[in-house]
Design goal:
The protein is mainly alpha-helical and about 260 residues long. Helix content is about 80%, strand content about 0%. It has twelve helices and no strands. The longest helix is centred in the middle third of the chain and has 28 residues, at about 95-125. The two termini are about 30 Å apart.
């Protein structure tokens, strides 16, 4: 049983690191698995941030070695994202379970809607204009930082949208900046969850080992000629998985009533 438990954590970290690096929403895989392993939901949400952080650090390092990180642009994009993350993490402490569930459902539905509109367009076309960080993009990055601090699910999708559609970055460079932004905006929630004693450090460390490997593979795969097509399919599969998980969770009382 213990072997299966720890093996599942490594495999979950690997999948989450790969998905987070190539696209987003790796938490759609990792968070439900943690709950299925009988880890309390609050601890699962807190512990889940560790592989996101470690995997993002590995991905950022890999992108840096490939000279794909626009460090000049990051100096402008990171401050509003950090400010938003701090406010979002503070706000998350004052939301009850019911409201949080409604927010998660709404976020997934919005992400699915965007996936078949602007995201599909962004990932299927080669960017023609040179990248440019405008003030409106900085404002959007602050709002995304709020969401990343409040709830990490699908936040990377929004980062990718702003970088590709608002700043006109091509996919490899957008993925590199996305990884860096995820790292910085995850540090604040990790610090707060750690202070509250909610993080299971052993489980988080084991998942992080898998996340490092997944992030490394994802960074190398990002430049593949068919990456846009595969990333789009990956996003579709992950968000549909999220919707299925939410539907199963929120219909549990109804199913219990019918069974009785």
């Amino acid at each position: 049983m213990d072997v299966l438990y720890w093996s599942a954590l490594v495999a979950t970290g690997l999948a989450a690191g790969l998905i987070n690096t190539l696209a987003s929403s790796g938490s759609a895989v990792s968070l439900p698995v943690l709950v299925m392993l009988n880890i309390p939901e609050v601890a699962a949400n807190a512990t889940n941030r560790l592989p996101v952080l470690i995997g993002g650090m590995m991905a950022t390092w890999s992108f840096h070695r490939e000279r794909q990180v626009d460090w000049h642009a990051s100096a402008r994009l990171l401050p509003p994202a950090i400010a938003g993350s701090l406010i979002g993490a503070l706000a998350a402490e004052h939301v009850d379970d019911r409201r949080m569930g409604l927010l998660i459902t709404g976020a997934v539905l919005i992400a699915l809607l965007m996936l078949f509109t602007k995201v599909k367009q962004a990932l299927s076309q080669i960017q023609q204009r040179p990248p440019q960080v405008k003030p409106f993009a900085l404002f959007l990055m602050f709002l995304i930082g709020l969401w990343l601090g409040f709830m990490v699910l699908d936040g990377a999708t929004y980062v990718l949208l702003v970088l590709m559609l608002g700043c006109h970055y091509a996919l490899p460079q957008a993925n590199a900046l996305k990884a860096l932004i995820l790292v910085v905006t995850t540090i604040v929630p990790v610090a707060m969850f750690s202070a509250a004693g909610d993080i299971l450090w052993t489980e988080g460390a084991v998942m992080s080992v898998g996340s490092i490997a997944g992030a490394h593979l994802g960074a190398r795969f990002s430049n593949h000629v068919r990456a846009r097509e595969w990333i789009f399919r990956l996003l579709v599969a992950v968000i549909l998985l999220e919707l299925g998980h939410l539907a199963w969770h929120y219909t549990a009382p109804l199913r219990a009533g019918l069974a009785s």
